Amino acid sequence: MKIGYACIPLTIDARTNRRLTLKNFSEKMLLEVLEQNLIDLREILENNEKNNIKLFRISSDIVPLGSHSINEVTWYKYFQNELNEIGEYIKKCGMRVSMHPGQYTVLNAEKEDIVVRAIKDLEYHAKFLDCLGVDGGNKIILHIGGGYGDKALAMNRFIENFKRLSPSVKNRLVIENDDRTFNIVDLLFVSGEINIPVIFDNLHHKCNHESEMPIKEIMNRVAKTWKEEDGNPKVHYSQQDSRKHVGAHSNTIIVKEFLEYFEQVKEFNIDIMLEVKDKDISAIKCNLIVSNMNKQLKHVITEKQWAKYKYLLMERNYKHYKACSRLVRENCNLQEFYEYTDEIMNFDVEDGSFINTAEHVWGYVKNNASNKEQMHFKKLIIDLEHKDKVKVYLKKLCDKYNVEYMLSSYYFYY
Fold first, then answer.
1. 3-class SS at 197?
2. What pTM, to 2 d.p., does this model score?
3. Per residue in 154-200, pLDDT tens?
4. Rg (CA), the chain
5. Given strand 3-6, what is the order of strands in its sheet?
6. E strand or H helix at 270, and its extent?
7. Shared domain check, 154 and 172
8. Which of 61, 212, 334, 394 has the highest count of CB atoms within 10 angstroms of its CB?
9. How far apart are the C-alpha atoms of 101 and 117, rounded to whole Å?
10. Going by C-beta distance under 8 Å and a sequence separation of 6 or more, which residues neighbour residue 279?
């Protein structure tokens, strides 16, 4: 089983979604931006490997304006060696990657020009994955599209337009249930007509379903849409943000809820793509919690995770910090640790505790900080309406003075 995340990690300063505007487009600019995106993709994959994250979604923007008519640059020829090296690294590490075109890639649109653009976009995604040299188990995920007042007709348009795709796209394309229109039953019907795999999204299913089919029955039917050459069945997993609109992804994955889901689906030998705001942090958490770790190592790992979370608990209230510190000292296991931190992370940050924690973190840099930096920190700490500015500044100083302990913590990312 592989557990991963989408596009942009939080724990390192690397991203693959640098863009170009049409106004600024030129071959030179495209190649410069793409080069940096590829450098960062390699860095992200290496960091994922270090954290045992074997599943990753590559940003659709990795090639700026990749499928736009303005882009006639044969970028794959310029970076043939780099793309090959990245692909070899993916294969050597036993990773699996995917791509997910955005909401404007609508294969079942009523207007032909929109369909043509969708086809071109899908071909671009397939071209990128083909250039990596990865096999058909590395997928392109797509929603069916719009309902246009007649779901049956809309599904039929998708089926017909699928036939217009190249063999490469057909080989990689998988379809996902959405949160408004096409539910898992619709997807299974379309899959049966064109013989492509289905990705089951649990949160979309909660938002949009027509039957109370148990998860195990859904997964049994979904798993049968995946052939051996498609790789393991892949699902999308997310949790509802209780403070936002229905369908909004949570800030982090709550371990207790995740394990309840995991117990229902693990028999299907699936790979799980987490769709969550804290990205690789939750991926690290979920990978650790389901791994078969040596019991002797469990407490060592718990202590390392405590070092990453401790200041997040402190800024909510010092008593939570003390309580969790006691749990770790008493040799709690990793699951107990995560269940406690998950509960506390859901609490609001208290003003007094925020100041106290920021001053603790300031202690790591204050001996090196200039008078100007000291004055700026004191000015920021007074303005509690903009707590994020305090953290941004503290991270800047920790970067400047190479405070590795704080830079490896999660304090700056929440």
1. coil
2. 0.94
3. 999 999 999 999 999 999 999 999 999 999 999 999 999 999 999 99
4. 23
5. 96-98, 55-57, 3-6, 271-274, 234-237, 198-201, 173-176, 140-143
6. none
7. yes
8. 394
9. 12
10. 5, 6, 7, 8, 9, 10
